[in-house]
Design brief:
The protein is an all-alpha fold and 349 residues long. It has helices spanning 2-15, 25-44, 47-70, 78-95, 99-121, 126-146, 148-151, 168-172, 174-196, 199-209, 211-216, 221-247, 257-270, 276-294, 300-314, 318-330, 336-347; strands at 157-158, 249-250.
């Protein structure tokens, strides 16, 4: 079996998108810059908006783990973001536990919800997988809307507390809440990074690029896909729970198909299969929406849609993907877009 492992590992090394971060000092420079930006964000951006950027960034990273590295496009990830938001909000509201515990409860719920959905969905690929996940998400939307005694229906769950071991500054000030929640965001992103750069991640990329060959080498493709689906759901749930606690309420918007579409837009805008691109895309979209809403502009979707179209037409690999491709060409490496494009064609995306 060592031959199979070597063969799969070689293929994965040739197609893993994060070339810039492998065996290079640039990795540590990027990590340091990213950490500094995360720590300084609420000093330059309104703290609640900074928290939104961080939550959506983790949500997009979770989707990119599934889309960029497993080749599976989910249109139903709002089920895990929103499902976790409701669970975290209800746990915090009715038990009074510190918000990290409520958020972790929501993330666990998202993973448990993802297991049966993943088992039924990964048997399909391409647009069929996307439609199956969307159908499950709409089922959850219907349940949440009808179960008014628990979820509040159209009124949502209101008055969600930000309990944090009795520390009043964290519980009342968004600025300090951001720093209390940031370790959970960073832990989620670190975990996604470890998954991508582990043997599991290399096999995952191999199953994305050539499922038939991966099966021939002895790998259970469906099992790997279910595992990454559950991991992705857990990270999305972690982000959704923090988003709910930050805002102090949970609404039907969190489980709507528009939320699934927004995170796909963010991921594609930043660059599929890069992780960094998801973070950049979240920063661009959330900041743009906040600026437009503050100015009183009502057609926010028109502007964000136009930005998305322009980026996709001019920068097919997304913002971060385009940057890394230019660096790769300068260093004489194969551009990432070739690998991702080949994988997408094979998956029917």
């Amino acid at each position: 079996m060592s031959t199979a492992t070597d063969t799969t590992g070689t293929a994965a090394d040739q197609t893993t998108p994060s070339r810039l971060s492998r065996r290079s000092p640039a990795r540590w420079v990027l990590l340091a810059v990213g950490l500094v930006l995360a720590l300084s964000l609420p000093w330059f951006v309104y703290p609640p908006v900074a928290m939104d950027i961080a939550a959506w960034a983790l949500f997009a990273v979770a989707l990119d783990l599934l889309l960029g590295y497993a080749g599976l496009l989910s249109f139903g990830h709002a089920a895990f973001w929103g499902g976790s938001a409701y669970v975290a909000g209800l746990v915090a509201l009715h038990t009074g536990v510190p918000f990290p515990i409520a958020v972790l409860a929501g993330a666990i719920f998202a993973m448990l919800l993802a297991l049966p959905i993943g088992l039924l969905s990964v048997k399909r690929s391409g647009i069929y997988f996307a439609m199956v996940t969307l159908a499950f998400a709409q089922m959850l939307f219907f349940v949440v809307n009808q179960w008014r005694d628990l979820t509040g229906g159209e009124n949502g769950v209101q008055g969600v507390p930000r309990n944090f071991f009795g520390i009043e500054l964290v519980e009342t000030e968004p600025f300090y809440f951001y720093y209390a929640a940031l370790p959970l965001i960073l832990a989620g992103m670190w975990f996604a990074w470890r998954v991508v750069h582990s043997p599991f991640g290399r096999v995952l990329v191999a199953t994305r690029d050539n499922p038939a060959r991966a099966r021939a080498l002895g790998y259970d493709v469906e099992r790997y896909r279910v595992m990454v689906f559950v991991i992705s759901a857990g990270l999305a749930g972690l982000a959704g729970g923090l988003f709910a606690i930050s805002h102090g309420f949970v609404s039907l918007q969190e489980v709507s198909w528009q939320t699934s579409g927004k995170v796909v837009l963010i991921t594609v805008l930043g660059g599929i299969g890069t992780l960094w691109g998801a973070i950049i895309g979240a920063g661009v979209i959330v900041t743009l929406e906040d600026q437009l809403a503050s100015s009183g502009f009502e057609g926010i979707g028109i502007i964000t849609g136009a930005v998305f179209i322009i980026v996709v037409m001019l920068f097919r690999s997304g913002i971060w993907g385009t940057v890394t491709n230019l660096i790769a060409r300068r260093r004489g490496l194969k551009p990432e877009s070739d690998d991702i494009g080949a994988a997408d064609s094979e998956q029917g995306l």
